[in-house]
Amino acid sequence: MTGTVHINTRIRQNAETLAAALEGHMHKIFAPDARKELRLFSAGEAAELLGISTSFLRKLHFDDRAPEVHTSPGGRRHYSADDLLELRRVLEANTKSRGAYQRGRREDDKLQVLSFLNFKGGSGKTTSSVHAAQRLALKGYRVLCVDIDPQASLTTLFGYRPEYDFLNSGTIYDAIRYDDPVALEDVIQKTYFTGIDLAPGGLMLQEFEHETPQALMNHAQPPFFARLATALRDVEQNYDVVIFDCPPQLGYLTMAALCASTGVLITVVPNMLDVASMSQFLQMSADLLDVVSNAGASMEFDFMRFLINRYEPNDGPQQQVLAFLRQLFDDEVMVAPMLKSTAISDAGLTHQTIYEVDRAQFHRNTYDRALDSLNLVNDEIESMIQKAWGR
Q1: Of the residues 36, 181, 214, 325, which has the fewest C-beta atoms closer than 10 A?
Q2: Bridge-partner residues for 311, per DSSP?
Q3: What is d(CA 52, CA 274) in angstroms, rounded to the nearest whole number?
Q4: pTM, two decimal places
Protein backbone atom coordinates (compact mmCIF):
# COMPACT_ATOMS: atom_id res chain seq x y z
CA MET A 1 0.00 0.00 0.00
CA THR A 2 1.43 3.31 -0.98
CA GLY A 3 1.71 6.05 1.59
CA THR A 4 -0.40 9.18 1.31
CA VAL A 5 1.08 12.63 0.94
CA HIS A 6 -0.55 15.88 2.03
CA ILE A 7 -1.12 17.97 -1.09
CA ASN A 8 0.18 21.14 0.58
CA THR A 9 3.44 19.33 1.43
CA ARG A 10 3.86 18.05 -2.12
CA ILE A 11 3.10 21.46 -3.64
CA ARG A 12 5.64 23.11 -1.33
CA GLN A 13 8.26 20.51 -2.26
CA ASN A 14 7.58 21.05 -5.95
CA ALA A 15 7.76 24.82 -5.51
CA GLU A 16 11.14 24.59 -3.77
CA THR A 17 12.49 22.19 -6.40
CA LEU A 18 11.37 24.42 -9.25
CA ALA A 19 12.68 27.59 -7.58
CA ALA A 20 16.12 26.00 -7.13
CA ALA A 21 16.15 24.88 -10.76
CA LEU A 22 15.20 28.36 -11.96
CA GLU A 23 17.92 29.86 -9.79
CA GLY A 24 20.47 27.56 -11.44
CA HIS A 25 19.08 28.40 -14.88
CA MET A 26 19.46 32.14 -14.26
CA HIS A 27 23.06 31.74 -13.09
CA LYS A 28 23.86 29.59 -16.11
CA ILE A 29 22.46 32.15 -18.54
CA PHE A 30 23.62 35.35 -16.87
CA ALA A 31 26.75 34.29 -14.97
CA PRO A 32 28.57 35.38 -12.93
CA ASP A 33 26.10 37.70 -11.16
CA ALA A 34 22.83 36.40 -12.63
CA ARG A 35 21.94 39.89 -13.91
CA LYS A 36 21.18 40.77 -17.47
CA GLU A 37 23.04 43.23 -19.67
CA LEU A 38 21.76 44.91 -22.80
CA ARG A 39 23.68 44.04 -25.93
CA LEU A 40 25.28 46.53 -28.31
CA PHE A 41 23.56 47.52 -31.56
CA SER A 42 25.01 47.54 -35.06
CA ALA A 43 25.32 50.72 -37.10
CA GLY A 44 22.31 49.67 -39.17
CA GLU A 45 20.20 49.09 -36.05
CA ALA A 46 21.36 52.38 -34.52
CA ALA A 47 20.52 54.33 -37.68
CA GLU A 48 17.03 52.77 -37.86
CA LEU A 49 16.32 53.62 -34.22
CA LEU A 50 17.56 57.20 -34.69
CA GLY A 51 15.62 57.65 -37.93
CA ILE A 52 18.68 58.50 -40.04
CA SER A 53 20.65 56.76 -42.77
CA THR A 54 23.78 54.75 -42.06
CA SER A 55 25.73 57.11 -44.32
CA PHE A 56 24.63 60.10 -42.21
CA LEU A 57 25.62 58.20 -39.08
CA ARG A 58 29.09 57.61 -40.55
CA LYS A 59 29.31 61.32 -41.38
CA LEU A 60 28.58 62.20 -37.73
CA HIS A 61 31.63 60.18 -36.75
CA PHE A 62 33.73 61.66 -39.57
CA ASP A 63 32.80 65.17 -38.36
CA ASP A 64 33.61 64.24 -34.73
CA ARG A 65 30.01 64.96 -33.68
CA ALA A 66 29.28 61.42 -32.49
CA PRO A 67 30.49 59.90 -29.20
CA GLU A 68 33.27 57.34 -29.15
CA VAL A 69 31.69 53.90 -29.45
CA HIS A 70 32.85 50.32 -29.30
CA THR A 71 34.68 49.34 -32.48
CA SER A 72 35.37 45.72 -33.41
CA PRO A 73 38.80 44.60 -34.69
CA GLY A 74 37.34 44.75 -38.21
CA GLY A 75 36.42 48.42 -37.77
CA ARG A 76 32.67 47.95 -37.31
CA ARG A 77 31.03 50.30 -34.83
CA HIS A 78 28.63 49.04 -32.18
CA TYR A 79 26.40 51.28 -30.08
CA SER A 80 25.15 51.02 -26.54
CA ALA A 81 21.74 52.36 -25.58
CA ASP A 82 23.53 55.23 -23.80
CA ASP A 83 25.37 56.01 -27.05
CA LEU A 84 21.99 56.28 -28.78
CA LEU A 85 20.77 58.77 -26.18
CA GLU A 86 23.87 60.91 -26.68
CA LEU A 87 23.41 60.79 -30.47
CA ARG A 88 19.80 61.90 -30.05
CA ARG A 89 20.98 64.87 -28.02
CA VAL A 90 23.49 65.81 -30.72
CA LEU A 91 20.96 65.43 -33.53
CA GLU A 92 18.25 67.37 -31.67
CA ALA A 93 20.64 70.22 -30.97
CA ASN A 94 21.31 70.61 -34.68
CA THR A 95 17.82 70.29 -36.13
CA LYS A 96 15.32 73.03 -36.95
CA SER A 97 12.39 70.74 -36.21
CA ARG A 98 11.89 70.49 -32.46
CA GLY A 99 11.24 66.96 -31.25
CA ALA A 100 12.52 65.27 -34.39
CA TYR A 101 14.97 63.15 -32.39
CA GLN A 102 13.91 63.66 -28.76
CA ARG A 103 10.22 62.82 -28.96
CA GLY A 104 9.34 62.58 -25.28
CA ARG A 105 7.08 64.76 -23.15
CA ARG A 106 7.25 68.51 -23.28
CA GLU A 107 6.28 70.89 -20.53
CA ASP A 108 2.53 70.83 -21.17
CA ASP A 109 2.23 67.16 -22.16
CA LYS A 110 0.50 64.83 -19.76
CA LEU A 111 2.04 61.55 -18.73
CA GLN A 112 0.92 58.70 -20.98
CA VAL A 113 -0.13 55.64 -18.99
CA LEU A 114 -0.88 52.50 -21.00
CA SER A 115 -2.55 49.34 -19.71
CA PHE A 116 -2.11 46.04 -21.52
CA LEU A 117 -4.89 43.73 -20.46
CA ASN A 118 -7.24 40.87 -21.17
CA PHE A 119 -9.39 38.54 -19.14
CA LYS A 120 -7.72 35.46 -20.63
CA GLY A 121 -4.22 34.18 -19.90
CA GLY A 122 -1.96 33.49 -22.85
CA SER A 123 -3.15 36.46 -24.88
CA GLY A 124 0.32 38.00 -24.99
CA LYS A 125 -0.08 40.86 -22.52
CA THR A 126 3.41 40.58 -21.03
CA THR A 127 5.08 39.95 -24.40
CA SER A 128 3.32 42.99 -25.86
CA SER A 129 4.01 45.27 -22.91
CA VAL A 130 7.73 44.46 -22.59
CA HIS A 131 8.39 44.84 -26.33
CA ALA A 132 6.49 48.15 -26.39
CA ALA A 133 8.48 49.42 -23.40
CA GLN A 134 11.81 48.44 -24.94
CA ARG A 135 11.07 49.88 -28.38
CA LEU A 136 9.97 53.18 -26.81
CA ALA A 137 13.09 53.29 -24.61
CA LEU A 138 15.35 52.62 -27.59
CA LYS A 139 13.65 55.54 -29.34
CA GLY A 140 14.52 57.85 -26.47
CA TYR A 141 11.44 57.77 -24.22
CA ARG A 142 11.71 57.53 -20.44
CA VAL A 143 9.62 54.49 -19.52
CA LEU A 144 8.35 53.13 -16.22
CA CYS A 145 7.11 49.53 -16.30
CA VAL A 146 4.68 48.65 -13.51
CA ASP A 147 4.09 44.94 -13.00
CA ILE A 148 0.74 44.51 -11.25
CA ASP A 149 0.46 40.80 -12.01
CA PRO A 150 1.17 38.63 -8.93
CA GLN A 151 2.80 36.10 -11.29
CA ALA A 152 5.41 38.82 -12.02
CA SER A 153 6.41 37.62 -15.50
CA LEU A 154 7.40 41.14 -16.54
CA THR A 155 9.63 41.46 -13.48
CA THR A 156 11.29 38.16 -14.35
CA LEU A 157 11.96 39.34 -17.92
CA PHE A 158 13.96 42.24 -16.49
CA GLY A 159 16.32 39.81 -14.79
CA TYR A 160 14.84 39.77 -11.30
CA ARG A 161 13.70 36.72 -9.36
CA PRO A 162 10.53 37.78 -7.56
CA GLU A 163 10.46 34.67 -5.38
CA TYR A 164 13.91 35.68 -4.02
CA ASP A 165 14.38 39.40 -4.65
CA PHE A 166 10.93 40.59 -3.55
CA LEU A 167 9.56 37.79 -1.42
CA ASN A 168 8.21 39.97 1.41
CA SER A 169 8.73 43.55 0.22
CA GLY A 170 9.91 45.76 -2.61
CA THR A 171 7.00 45.39 -5.03
CA ILE A 172 4.39 47.85 -6.25
CA TYR A 173 2.16 46.42 -3.51
CA ASP A 174 4.19 48.37 -0.94
CA ALA A 175 3.21 51.63 -2.64
CA ILE A 176 -0.53 50.91 -2.90
CA ARG A 177 -1.25 48.91 0.25
CA TYR A 178 -3.77 50.33 2.70
CA ASP A 179 -1.58 50.07 5.79
CA ASP A 180 1.30 52.56 5.77
CA PRO A 181 2.15 52.65 2.03
CA VAL A 182 5.63 53.74 0.98
CA ALA A 183 6.51 56.25 -1.74
CA LEU A 184 6.58 54.70 -5.21
CA GLU A 185 10.13 55.94 -5.74
CA ASP A 186 11.21 53.64 -2.89
CA VAL A 187 10.20 50.51 -4.80
CA ILE A 188 11.23 51.55 -8.31
CA GLN A 189 14.26 49.64 -9.58
CA LYS A 190 16.71 50.66 -12.26
CA THR A 191 16.97 48.01 -14.96
CA TYR A 192 19.78 46.91 -17.25
CA PHE A 193 17.79 48.41 -20.12
CA THR A 194 18.68 52.09 -20.55
CA GLY A 195 15.55 54.23 -20.37
CA ILE A 196 13.41 51.73 -18.44
CA ASP A 197 12.72 51.65 -14.71
CA LEU A 198 10.62 48.94 -13.07
CA ALA A 199 8.10 48.83 -10.25
CA PRO A 200 8.27 45.07 -9.61
CA GLY A 201 5.41 42.66 -9.14
CA GLY A 202 5.20 39.59 -6.94
CA LEU A 203 2.89 37.34 -4.97
CA MET A 204 2.34 40.04 -2.32
CA LEU A 205 0.11 41.81 -4.85
CA GLN A 206 -2.51 39.17 -4.19
CA GLU A 207 -2.90 40.74 -0.75
CA PHE A 208 -4.34 43.85 -2.40
CA GLU A 209 -7.16 41.75 -3.86
CA HIS A 210 -7.80 40.20 -0.43
CA GLU A 211 -7.62 43.46 1.55
CA THR A 212 -9.74 45.66 -0.70
CA PRO A 213 -13.21 44.35 0.35
CA GLN A 214 -12.42 45.22 3.99
CA ALA A 215 -10.96 48.57 2.89
CA LEU A 216 -14.20 49.34 1.04
CA MET A 217 -16.18 48.65 4.21
CA ASN A 218 -13.84 50.94 6.15
CA HIS A 219 -14.01 53.68 3.46
CA ALA A 220 -10.21 53.72 3.14
CA GLN A 221 -8.76 56.72 1.32
CA PRO A 222 -7.76 56.98 -1.40
CA PRO A 223 -10.15 54.25 -2.62
CA PHE A 224 -8.74 51.19 -4.37
CA PHE A 225 -9.36 52.53 -7.87
CA ALA A 226 -7.29 55.68 -7.21
CA ARG A 227 -4.31 54.15 -5.44
CA LEU A 228 -2.15 53.49 -8.51
CA ALA A 229 -2.89 56.94 -9.94
CA THR A 230 -2.07 58.52 -6.58
CA ALA A 231 1.21 56.63 -6.32
CA LEU A 232 2.25 57.74 -9.82
CA ARG A 233 1.85 61.45 -9.08
CA ASP A 234 5.06 61.64 -7.08
CA VAL A 235 7.23 60.25 -9.90
CA GLU A 236 5.43 61.27 -13.09
CA GLN A 237 7.87 64.10 -13.80
CA ASN A 238 10.58 61.47 -14.31
CA TYR A 239 8.83 59.64 -17.17
CA ASP A 240 7.21 60.06 -20.55
CA VAL A 241 5.31 56.76 -20.56
CA VAL A 242 4.12 54.32 -17.90
CA ILE A 243 3.19 50.77 -18.92
CA PHE A 244 1.02 48.53 -16.74
CA ASP A 245 1.23 44.78 -17.27
CA CYS A 246 -2.10 43.66 -15.83
CA PRO A 247 -3.08 40.27 -14.39
CA PRO A 248 -5.34 37.99 -16.46
CA GLN A 249 -8.39 38.77 -14.37
CA LEU A 250 -10.73 41.68 -13.85
CA GLY A 251 -9.94 42.32 -10.21
CA TYR A 252 -9.21 45.39 -8.13
CA LEU A 253 -5.66 45.70 -9.47
CA THR A 254 -6.82 45.78 -13.09
CA MET A 255 -9.54 48.31 -12.33
CA ALA A 256 -7.03 50.49 -10.49
CA ALA A 257 -4.74 50.36 -13.55
CA LEU A 258 -7.61 51.31 -15.86
CA CYS A 259 -8.50 54.26 -13.66
CA ALA A 260 -4.88 55.48 -13.85
CA SER A 261 -4.56 55.00 -17.62
CA THR A 262 -4.69 57.35 -20.57
CA GLY A 263 -4.61 54.50 -23.10
CA VAL A 264 -5.80 50.90 -23.12
CA LEU A 265 -4.52 48.06 -25.29
CA ILE A 266 -6.62 44.90 -25.17
CA THR A 267 -4.65 41.96 -26.51
CA VAL A 268 -6.64 39.34 -28.38
CA VAL A 269 -5.67 36.13 -30.17
CA PRO A 270 -7.81 35.88 -33.33
CA ASN A 271 -9.77 32.71 -32.70
CA MET A 272 -13.41 32.46 -31.75
CA LEU A 273 -12.84 31.05 -28.25
CA ASP A 274 -10.64 34.01 -27.36
CA VAL A 275 -13.08 36.45 -28.97
CA ALA A 276 -15.94 34.92 -26.98
CA SER A 277 -13.86 35.27 -23.81
CA MET A 278 -13.13 38.89 -24.73
CA SER A 279 -16.84 39.53 -25.15
CA GLN A 280 -17.40 38.48 -21.55
CA PHE A 281 -14.41 40.54 -20.45
CA LEU A 282 -15.73 43.69 -22.13
CA GLN A 283 -19.21 43.26 -20.62
CA MET A 284 -17.84 42.70 -17.12
CA SER A 285 -15.43 45.63 -17.55
CA ALA A 286 -18.23 47.97 -18.58
CA ASP A 287 -20.40 46.96 -15.62
CA LEU A 288 -17.62 47.27 -13.05
CA LEU A 289 -16.23 50.49 -14.47
CA ASP A 290 -19.71 52.02 -14.34
CA VAL A 291 -19.61 51.40 -10.59
CA VAL A 292 -16.19 52.99 -10.04
CA SER A 293 -17.09 55.86 -12.38
CA ASN A 294 -20.15 56.61 -10.25
CA ALA A 295 -17.82 56.54 -7.24
CA GLY A 296 -15.72 59.33 -8.76
CA ALA A 297 -13.10 57.59 -10.91
CA SER A 298 -11.98 59.27 -14.12
CA MET A 299 -12.84 57.19 -17.17
CA GLU A 300 -11.41 59.41 -19.91
CA PHE A 301 -8.92 57.70 -22.24
CA ASP A 302 -6.97 59.18 -25.13
CA PHE A 303 -7.34 55.88 -26.97
CA MET A 304 -8.43 52.28 -26.66
CA ARG A 305 -7.27 49.69 -29.19
CA PHE A 306 -7.51 45.97 -29.80
CA LEU A 307 -4.03 44.56 -30.39
CA ILE A 308 -4.14 41.38 -32.45
CA ASN A 309 -1.63 38.93 -31.04
CA ARG A 310 -0.05 35.65 -32.20
CA TYR A 311 -1.46 36.21 -35.67
CA GLU A 312 -0.70 33.73 -38.45
CA PRO A 313 -1.37 35.42 -41.83
CA ASN A 314 -1.70 32.10 -43.67
CA ASP A 315 -4.29 30.73 -41.27
CA GLY A 316 -7.68 31.04 -42.98
CA PRO A 317 -9.85 30.96 -39.82
CA GLN A 318 -7.65 33.61 -38.19
CA GLN A 319 -8.04 35.82 -41.25
CA GLN A 320 -11.81 35.46 -40.96
CA VAL A 321 -11.79 36.34 -37.26
CA LEU A 322 -9.60 39.39 -37.90
CA ALA A 323 -11.92 40.55 -40.69
CA PHE A 324 -14.87 40.02 -38.32
CA LEU A 325 -13.21 42.18 -35.63
CA ARG A 326 -12.31 44.93 -38.10
CA GLN A 327 -15.89 44.98 -39.36
CA LEU A 328 -17.18 45.33 -35.80
CA PHE A 329 -14.64 47.78 -34.36
CA ASP A 330 -13.16 49.46 -37.44
CA ASP A 331 -10.18 51.65 -36.50
CA GLU A 332 -10.24 50.53 -32.86
CA VAL A 333 -8.43 47.41 -34.12
CA MET A 334 -4.76 48.26 -34.58
CA VAL A 335 -3.54 48.26 -38.16
CA ALA A 336 -0.47 46.14 -37.39
CA PRO A 337 -0.96 42.71 -35.82
CA MET A 338 1.75 41.02 -33.76
CA LEU A 339 2.72 37.89 -35.67
CA LYS A 340 3.14 34.51 -34.05
CA SER A 341 6.85 33.74 -34.27
CA THR A 342 9.20 31.04 -33.09
CA ALA A 343 11.83 33.79 -32.71
CA ILE A 344 9.76 35.49 -30.00
CA SER A 345 9.07 32.24 -28.13
CA ASP A 346 12.67 31.02 -28.51
CA ALA A 347 14.00 34.32 -27.13
CA GLY A 348 11.69 33.83 -24.15
CA LEU A 349 13.48 30.59 -23.26
CA THR A 350 16.39 32.71 -22.03
CA HIS A 351 14.15 35.44 -20.55
CA GLN A 352 14.89 37.75 -23.47
CA THR A 353 13.00 39.69 -26.10
CA ILE A 354 13.52 40.21 -29.82
CA TYR A 355 15.17 43.56 -29.06
CA GLU A 356 17.70 41.89 -26.77
CA VAL A 357 18.74 38.78 -28.66
CA ASP A 358 21.39 38.78 -31.34
CA ARG A 359 20.10 38.24 -34.85
CA ALA A 360 22.86 35.67 -35.47
CA GLN A 361 21.19 33.29 -33.00
CA PHE A 362 18.21 32.81 -35.32
CA HIS A 363 17.40 32.05 -38.92
CA ARG A 364 17.69 35.46 -40.54
CA ASN A 365 14.26 35.49 -42.18
CA THR A 366 12.53 34.30 -39.01
CA TYR A 367 14.19 37.00 -36.92
CA ASP A 368 13.58 39.79 -39.45
CA ARG A 369 9.92 38.82 -39.83
CA ALA A 370 9.39 38.96 -36.05
CA LEU A 371 11.33 42.21 -35.69
CA ASP A 372 9.44 43.94 -38.50
CA SER A 373 6.12 42.86 -36.98
CA LEU A 374 7.02 44.15 -33.53
CA ASN A 375 8.36 47.44 -34.89
CA LEU A 376 5.14 48.08 -36.82
CA VAL A 377 3.02 47.40 -33.72
CA ASN A 378 5.13 49.48 -31.37
CA ASP A 379 5.60 52.38 -33.77
CA GLU A 380 1.81 52.48 -34.14
CA ILE A 381 1.58 52.72 -30.36
CA GLU A 382 4.15 55.53 -30.44
CA SER A 383 2.09 57.39 -33.04
CA MET A 384 -0.96 57.19 -30.75
CA ILE A 385 1.10 58.64 -27.90
CA GLN A 386 2.32 61.46 -30.13
CA LYS A 387 -1.24 62.15 -31.29
CA ALA A 388 -2.40 62.33 -27.67
CA TRP A 389 0.24 65.03 -27.18
CA GLY A 390 -1.18 66.93 -30.15
CA ARG A 391 1.62 66.19 -32.62
Answers
A1: 214
A2: 339
A3: 40
A4: 0.89
